[in-house]
Each structure stands twice: as C-alpha cells, then as structure tokens.
Design brief:
single chain; mainly beta; about 0% helix; seven-stranded mixed β-sheet; about 120 residues; about 55% strand; four-stranded antiparallel β-sheet
Length: about 120
C-alpha cells in the first residue's frame, strides 16, 4: 500500500522561508514533487524531480529562482525549500509521487499561508 505523507507547512511572513517534506513508501518511485491549489483556482505544478537515474527537475515559472526541489532517495523523501515567499504562494501544497508503472499518488496536502 502506497503512503504519501507531507509535513512542514505553516504561516510565514512575506519574504520568509519554509521547507516542505514528503515521504513516500510502498512502491518504487520514478518522480516526486509538489503541486499547489489556491482557493478558487485549479491545482498547478510547483516543482517535480526525478528519483531514479539522472536527476531532472521541472519548475513552474512563478517559483523559479525562489523554490528548490531536492530528494533523498535513501529515504524516498522529497523536499521543497521555499524562499522569498510571496502572498500569492498561499495555497494548499500537495505532494505527488509517480511510480515506475506511471501511477500517481497524492498526499493529503499541507497549508502554506504567506502574510503580507
């Protein structure tokens, strides 16, 4: 049974930093990363990273240069370091994992609130 568990959300002032963590278990994963959903908006990609073979990352334009996604393959864990946070980064952040059979799994979400 696949489990995806996020942690690290919270309230931070604009310009501050937060670090999200996501630990997955129960399968062999080929990619992990983060999406977010703000109130009244669709869920959108934030950042993804491959977890097997050559490292490859993909970032939304809105977070490039401010957010960094990284992985610890030994722990099946992916991190999202968020710096220079803006009020528009406020959203529920969801961890997404993709296994080697291309099945996607989602975490329960963690709230990130940036106060201006």
């Amino acid at each position: 049974q696949v489990q995806v568990v996020e942690s690290g959300g919270g309230l931070v002032q604009a310009g501050g930093s937060l670090r999200l963590s996501c630990a997955a278990s129960g399968s062999i994963f080929s990619a992990m990363g983060w999406y977010r959903q703000a109130p009244g908006k669709q869920r959108e990609l934030v950042a993804m990273i491959t977890t097997s073979g050559i490292t490859s990352t993909n970032y939304a334009d809105s977070v490039k240069g401010r957010f960094t996604v990284s992985r610890d393959n030994a722990k099946n864990t992916v991190y999202l370091q968020m710096d220079s946070l803006k009020s528009e980064d406020t959203a529920v952040y969801y961890c997404k994992t993709v296994d080697r059979w291309r099945t996607s799994y989602w975490g329960q979400g963690t709230q990130v609130t940036v106060s201006s």
